[in-house]
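Morning!

This is the sequence you dropped in the shared folder:
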Amino acid sequence: MSHAGLPVVAEIVRSGFVEGHHYGSIVALAADGTVDWSVGEVAAPVLPRSSNKPVQALAMVELGLDLPPDLLALACASHSGEPFHVEGVRRTLASAGLDESALQTPPDYPLDDDAREAVIRAGGARSPILMNCSGKHAAMLATCVLMGWDTATYLDPQHPLQVAIIETFARVTGEPVTTVAVDGCGAPLLSTSLTGLARAYATLATATEGPEHRVAEAIRQHPEFVSGTTRDELALHRAVPGLIGKAGAESCYAVALPDGRAWALKTDDGAARVRPVLMAEALRRSGVLAEEGVDAEAVEATGRLDLLGGGKPVGVIRAAF
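The structure's back. Tokens below.
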């Protein structure tokens, strides 16, 4: 069965009955950069959403942005809005002589449930700094200050910062940017194929020096800054030595290992719940779970999603590729 030409990649199983499906595409690159295996359409452009952030951060480092590793990781983040994330965004802004009034992220509450409740209980409101992309925006602003560029128009696709990001993005994905859309945070959103996205992550993960290495090491050293303390992305980073990864909206996900192997995926319906299920299965299919130093049980746990009935597990969402 397929949908819009895409194959089933996961089944929704309740009480032993398959009540629905997720359709999508997955690509796995071998260490030499060739496609090891794929499912669905992996050569057509997609909008990888926040999975683009490490590459955007790379462009800023190439321009001269010099943040400590934790704040560079935060530049790659869709953060949970926990207090250390918010404090980190303020540190990034302060390093450039700015404060949160410079941010053009839409006002929001933290992604993390506990952090959101804490803000609300304290009488707090939605604010730009709490929005999950504020680390990226702070880094963009700091880069503009460094380069002497206008900070009021930093989200304009024609701004020199965004032009530089497009050039870097095209180079490391190995593909031209055919679409410049607007992401949820208001920043330019660049298209590439899943294969191009995986290629970009492999470029970061294999680097042993230079800006690419700095970005990859920041993610490895501070994965809690890239997501949050309760997220499946953090658990995967801790379970697989040397891994770098980043999820995006609309069920995008890309990860890579230091040997050059890389994976990227997206579902057609954009369901966030199935994203870690698919990545855990992709890593298993590629043999990663059997490798030395990998916590296979922890990887499998990131991909385990129970369906509840009466408050108790009665089914699962399971990979089907």
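Headline: Residues 2-319 form a domain with the Beta-lactamase fold (CATH 3.40.710).

More detail when I'm at my desk.
O.
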